[in-house]
Structure formats: C-alpha cells, structure tokens
Design brief:
The structure holds two protein chains of two kinds.
Chain A: H1 5-13, E1 14-17, E2 23-26, E3 29-32, H2 38-47, E4 57-60, H3 77-93, E5 96-98, H4 108-114, E6 123-126, E7 140-143, H5 146-155, E8 157-160, E9 164-171, H6 180-191, E10 199-204, H7 206-210, H8 213-221, E11 230-233, H9 237-243, H10 252-265, E12 275-280, E13 287-289, E14 297-299, H11 313-326, E15 341-344, H12 346-349, H13 352-362, E16 372-375, H14 380-388, H15 391-398, E17 401-402, E18 423-426, E19 442-445, H16 448-457
Parallel strand pairs in A: 3-4, 3-6, 4-5, 6-7, 9-10, 9-12, 10-11, 15-16, 15-18, 16-17, 18-19
Antiparallel strand pairs in A: 1-2, 2-8, 13-14
Helix pairs in contact in A: 2-5, 6-8, 13-15, 13-16
Chain B: E1 9-12, E2 14-16, H1 24-27, H2 47-52, E3 68-71, H3 83-91, E4 95-98, H4 103-111, E5 116-118, H5 121-133, E6 139-142, E7 147-150, E8 153-156, H6 161-169, H7 175-179, H8 182-191, H9 193-196
Parallel strand pairs in B: 2-3, 3-4, 4-5
Antiparallel strand pairs in B: 1-6, 6-7, 7-8
Classes of the chains: A alpha/beta, B alpha/beta.
Chain lengths: ~475, ~200
C-alpha cells in the first residue's frame, strides 16, 4: 500500500513521540509577522532562550500595514509599536525581515510562494490560520498560535497530533467565469465548516491538476474555513515551473535534483485515504456567501435558504441567526443585493492573476456611484507587476482605489474597514460577524471577478453575463 | 523550563454560551489584537457580541465570576489568534466544556493551560439548562476523573489521555519538552535535503 504526501512528510520530519502522545515535528520554514509574534519573543526573553534556527525563520509585516500612507511612524501609534517590536525582535535574534522598505514585503502567504521560500515536501508553520495556503506546493503547513510560535522559535519544532487524510477530487472542467474560489466555497458548503476537523484535505482530480499555482493557493488557503488545519495539492510540473528561478529556489543542477525529490514526495497512486469525496467541477457555479460563516454560500442563481426547510432545529437556528444578521429574507434571491463596498485583495485572492481577472471585468466600465471600491495587492511585488502591465490604470479609471500591499479590509486591523451595516462584496476568506471592522458590517465572499461585477452593477451580479 | 502549573480540577460557577461555530473574531475582535502583550484582553472578550446581542451571557451580571465556559459545536473556529483563549482565561475562565472545539483553538487553549473537555450533546444540553435555570449552581470539573458534577448532575467528560496527563503533570507547556533532546532535532534537520542542500 502506498503512502500519502502527508504521511511521507510527517515521517521524515518526526523527531520523536512526546510523553504527551503528540509528535515532535521539525518545522522546515517558520514565517512570522507583527501580530502574533511579539508576545512569543517576550516569552523567549523571559526564559532566557534564543531562536534555534534563525536562518529557517522569515519575517514580514502585513496585518496592520496602512495601505494609503506607509510613511513611518504610522499614524496609528499601536500599529507603529507593533512594527517597531517586530523590527527590534528580528534584529536582536538575527531573523531576516522583509519590511516596508523591501520589495519582498507582503502578506506572508503571498510572499512565501512568490520568493520560492515555500517548497514541496517541507513542513511550515506561521502564526496565522491561512498558513494552509502553502499546501498548494505540497508543503505541510500549520497555522499556529503565539505560544506555539514561541515553541517553533525556541526549538524549530511543533508538538502536534497526527491527522487523517481526506482526498477531495474535483473532476471535469470549470465553466467560464467559475474560479478556484467558487470551487472551495462549494467544497466548504458541502462538507461544512467543521467537516475537516481532524483531517488534512488533499485536493486532486482533473480540475485541480489543471489549475495554476495561484488557483491552487486559493483552494488550500480556505481549507481552514472548512475546519481542516491543513490542505495540500501534490506537487507536479506546474509546481516546479512556478518555482524555477524564484529567489530562494535551488538553481541549475540542484533544481533538477530538488524536482526529483519533490516528485517523490507526492502521494503514491495506491495511497490509502481515510475518506474520499468527489465533486463535479463542471457543475460549480459562481458562488456567494449569504451568512456569517464561509460554509453559508449558494450559487449566484440560487436563493438564500429558508430555515423552515432545514433538517435539524440547530440548522434552522443557525440559518435564522445568519439571515437576521445579514438582513436577508428566507428564500430571497441573492442576485440583486445592493453592495456598498467592493474589496479586492487578501491572502486568498490578492495575487496577480486575481487582479487580472477583476481588471478584465472592469475594463471599459465604471464602478456604480454608490460603491466604495478598493484594490489591495497581496504583496509589493504583485503591486509592481500589476503596475507594469497597467492594471493600476484599469482599476483607477474604473473608480477603484489602488493601494499598497497588506491584509487590509480582510480583517480591518489597519484603517481600511466597513462602517455601520455596510455590505461588502469581498474576495477575502471570512464573513464572520464584525470581521471587516464594523460590528454590524456584512460580508459577501466571492471570487475577484464577481467582486468586480458587483462593483460595476452596484449589486450582486452574475459575472458570466459580463465576460 | 518545564514544570508549569498542574491543572487537576476547576471549581466555580459556569457561563452558558449557546450556538455552534462561534468564531475567534467574535471571541476577540481583531482590533483588540493591536497590542504587543496579552494584558487587558479579558475585558474585551466578546466585545461586539455583548453590545449587539441582547442578553449575551458575557454581558449578564448573573454569570460574572464564572470559571467554566459551556459551549456547543466547533467553538473557536476561524483564526489562529491565541488572543481568543488568552482573553477567555484573563476574563476568568479556567475550563471549557462543550460538544466540540476547533482544532487550532484547542491547541492554543491547551498550550496555555486552559483545558477544553468534550461531553455528549445531551449532557451539554442538560448542563446549559441547569446553569440557565440556576446561574449560581456550583460546578466541579475534574480533569483527573474526567467528570463534571453540578448539583445532582454527573457528566462524563472526554479528553485524550495524553492531554489529560499533560494537564495533571503540568507538562502542557511544550517548550521544555521540545528542547529536551535537541541533538535529535539537529539530526532530523540534517537528513532533510532542503536543509542539507540539494
């Protein structure tokens, strides 16, 4: 019987089984940022412990970064203190930092792949749940909390329990106007936001194999929204071609040797899985969330659900609470819902191909007069690449604001946020209550092309009619 | 390094928080993460829900001073922010009992010495009702015996045996364990082609 990639990577990185029953797993790459690391460094100092492998640690700044005026000191004193703490900590412990003065700066889950830091067969950790993104390369990547950031800094290891593997196979070909975002929203809607607890999700099948690395990153990014801490795609030629020539990728003959090893880490053809799920990619529609968790989405042509039709009282209650918060009537169509804000960006959909797809919809159109629209590239390199092909002009002339790189309105730790009960068409990953900075603000998750369509129409629209 | 505080039992009153999939953005909204310490997080726990949801248990004086949090399914879903269990612990919560917990939340809570135990759905329902009817009900959660006692109610709790042992021996703080045989860590690193060089 063959093995899964998860099992191969796990075994290779196992240091020992701890008395707690957990596995002590070596972490090949630790990425840190300003929000979840300062307390971890303080804990190290209090214990008199250093950073075990500073050369396997890489830092950047993303969550609190202002996207308008990035001059220092920041206008927000708390943000400035967090930035300064990260600089001080990286300096003291000898950790590389891609700060705001570096063209390598950006959202951790955008720059890791972009710089070739993220590679197949690795273990990775980062104090952010969307670390699952890096699984697109066939890395096993853990989102962790601050005390675990401390553990990884101190020992380059994580104490963690083994996971089962669910293979999710997406067959067929996606229709026009249907994107990786729609596929992952469909998967989470089917399996639920807790369906993945205890599992790693392995994505495969014809539709996934055909996807670019950026599309695979979108899928893996939202694994955690389905309850799976880890998601991955087996590395293949698409992966290797993406990595070739990247700053931290091996070069020359070493690259070929690396590719051979990366290939060997993919799941074997006869690998056994704990669960198998099949999805027909050709049936997936552009999707939009109607509720307060990412599992609550429907195809754009479908109505929002009716609690009266739900299977259990708990489901009825959950749907009722979500509809109340969103101000939607049971069974009403979602298409035509007025939007106040359009947000393009985030670690889910803030990459060059995302901006290109949105720009394709916007070219020659104008954002509806009542819509405030923001385009926030996922990294400084994405911003520069977009500008080099004139996308910034497309966005500006359509009425979008073109901003600096960061997490921005995905979680509103910088000045970009919703006001009051505003409705936001958003290419981000979470529609939780209050997520975008206003306790009563409302988020509709969708693909970047659908965000662009909503911005132009001023309401939720089917991008397939606008391509 | 090791030898953190053992967690054997947690006694006190409970706070009943109904609902599935209560995410970490609700437990502690992101704007409160703009800080370089965890200090002061306790007062902001459920900050927005308390204001926008009438009768929210964390705004209800009958439950102030509670040390046991009762929840339903998939509590703590979403972000990896340790600020969520930190805020609960700093508010005064010493143990969580519910149907299920989100994975990263569970790991974070365990790592800071906050046990999250699971119970059968019917038992969770009885507990929620008991505490809603009588908020002053004294409750004992025994990590050692994996049981909860509330007046006449006796409930079986679940916790993986190794996690239970970690709480009882004060080894829930992993740093010391992970550093104990560091030569093994170096050995594993040196066998990885991407560390040794392709």
């Amino acid at each position: 019987m063959g093995q899964t990639l998860l099992r191969k990577v796990w075994d290779l990185h196992t240091v020992r089984t701890l008395p707690t029953g957990q596995t002590q797993l070596f972490i090949g790459l630790h990425m840190i940022h300003e929000v979840t690391s300062p307390q971890a460094f303080d804990m190290l100092r209090r214990r008199g412990v250093g950073v075990a492998f500073p050369d396997r640690t890489y830092a950047t700044v993303d969550h609190i970064v202002p996207t308008l005026d990035q001059g220092r000191p920041f206008a927000d004193d708390l943000a400035e203190r967090m930035m300064a703490a990260l600089e001080r900590n990286c300096d003291e412990f000898g950790i590389r930092l891609a700060g705001l003065d570096s063209d390598r700066q950006g959202i951790v889950h955008v720059i890791g792949p972009e710089l070739g830091l993220t590679q197949p067969g690795m273990t990775m950790a980062c104090g952010d749940s969307h670390t699952s993104t890096h699984g697109a390369f066939g890395a096993v990547a853990f989102g962790i909390g601050t005390s675990q950031v401390r553990d990884v800094l101190a020992s380059q290891c994580l104490a963690t329990a083994p996971l089962k593997v669910r293979r999710i196979s997406v067959s067929g070909k996606l229709g026009p106007g249907v994107y990786a975002k729609d596929v992952i929203l469909e998967i989470i809607a089917r399996l639920g936001v807790r369906g993945g607890i205890g599992y790693a999700y392995e994505y495969g099948g014809e539709a996934v194999e055909r996807m670019t690395m950026e599309e695979r990153m979108t899928i893996c990014n939202m694994s955690v929204e389905g309850g799976a801490r880890i998601g991955y795609v087996n590395p293949d030629e698409t992966t290797f071609e993406y990595l070739r020539g990247r700053a931290f990728a091996p070069e020359g003959d070493a690259f070929e040797r690396a590719a051979a090893w990366w290939r060997s880490m993919a799941s074997d053809r006869d690998a056994a899985y704990d669960d198998l799920v099949e999805i027909d990619g050709s049936e997936v529609e552009p999707r939009v969330t109607w509720g307060i968790n990412p599992g609550q989405s429907v195809g754009v042509s479908e109505p929002v659900p009716d609690p009266a039709a739900s299977r259990t009282p708990a489901d009825a209650e959950a749907i009722g609470e979500a509809l109340d918060f969103m101000g939607f009537a049971a069974g009403a169509p979602l298409r035509g819902t007025r939007v106040d804000v359009a947000f393009l960006g985030s670690c889910t959909n803030g990459r060059l191909s995302d901006l290109r797809e949105a720009a394709r919809v916007l070219r020659g159109s104008r954002v509806a007069p009542h819509v405030r629209a923001l385009a926030v590239p996922g990294s400084t390199r994405v911003r520069r690449a977009a500008e080099a092909e004139g996308l910034d002009e497309t966005f500006r002339s359509a009425g979008f604001e073109w901003r600096g790189a960061g997490c921005s309105m995905c979680l509103a730790m910088n000045p970009d946020r919703l006001n009051g009960r505003e409705v936001c068409a958003s290419s981000s990953n979470r529609n939780f209550k209050g997520r975008q900075g206003s306790p009563t603000g409302r988020t509709l998750l969708m693909s970047p092309a659908m965000v662009a369509a909503a911005a132009v129409a001023g309401e939720v629209a089917d991008v397939r009619t606008m391509l | 390094m090791s030898g953190a505080r053992p967690v054997d039992r947690v006694e006190g009153t409970a706070i009943p928080l109904r609902g599935d999939d209560i995410d970490t953005d609700r437990i502690i909204p992101a704007r409160f993460l703009k800080a370089i310490t965890f200090g002061g997080l306790g007062e902001h726990v459920f900050a927005d829900d308390r204001r926008t949801m009438p009768g929210h248990p964390f705004a209800d004086p009958r439950y102030s001073g509670a040390s046991i949090l009762l929840v339903n399914e998939n509590f703590g879903s979403g972000s990896s922010r340790e600020h969520a269990p930190q805020a609960l612990a700093r508010w005064g919560i010493g143990a969580c009992v519910g149907q299920s917990f989100s994975e990263i939340f569970l790991a974070n809570a365990t790592t800071i010495g906050l046990p999250c135990l699971t119970a059968a759905p019917s038992d969770v329902e009885s507990l929620l009702k008991t505490v809603e009817d009588e908020p002053t009900t004294p409750i004992v959660v025994s990590v050692r015996d994996l049981s909860l006692a509330a007046r006449g109610l006796a409930v079986r709790l679940r916790l993986p045996p190794a996690v239970r042992d970690a709480f009882l021996t004060g080894q829930w703080d992993a740093t010391g364990l992970l550093l104990r045989r560091f030569e093994d860590v170096r050995r594993v690193a040196s066998r990885l082609p991407y560390v040794a060089g392709f």
